[in-house]
Amino acid sequence: MTWKLINWMTETKDAEVPMSPILAATRAGVATWTANNLVHFWCQRLLGYQPSAARKSVLSRFMAQNGDPATQVIADTDTWAASDLKKHYNHQRLRSMVSLILMSPEFLSR
Q1: Model confidence pLDDT, tens digit, residues 29-46
Q2: For a tag site, which of 20, 24, 34, 45 has the least CB within 10 Å?
Q3: Residue 11 CB: number of other CB atoms within 10 A?
Q4: Domain total for the chain?
């Protein structure tokens, strides 16, 4: 699978119904949207286990965008906030993080 295909799968909708309901699953499965909680949830859901601490750290730092991955709560919004990357297009960043997991060696070796 290529990056373009993975991104297409996470972004595509059919009559406003997402092909991959990432937001709905996240809203149902993660009570507090910290970067660490989101990474833990999606790794468990897609891989069936938690990958190495190094892999999770990269994903958490991507989601946190200069915030604290353990404590910074990520808002359930998708707005532009160029002056504060922690608040910038959160839904798109979440879908991209899921794409990163789908392109990881751990997922591709399943």
Answers
A1: 999 999 999 999 999 999
A2: 24
A3: 15
A4: 1
Q: Would residue 26 count as lying in a domain?
A: no
The verdict on residue 16 lying in a domain is: no
Q: Which two tokens stand for residue 36?
A: 């660490």
User: Which token pair is 32?
Assistant: 């507090």
**Structural domain includes residue 87:** yes
Burial category of 25 from C-beta neighbours within 10 Å (exposed 0-12, middle 13-18, buried 19 and up):
middle
Percent of the chain at pLDDT exceeding 90:
67
**What pLDDT does 54 receive?**
97
Strand segments (E) across the chain: 13-14, 17-18
Which pLDDT score, from 0 to 100, does residue 84 have? Answer: 77
* CB within 8 Å of 95: residues ≥ 6 apart: 7, 10, 11, 20, 22
Contact 69, 34 (CB under 8 A): yes
Examine residue 4 and state whether it is found in any structural domain, yes or no. no
Domain containing 45: what range? 31-108
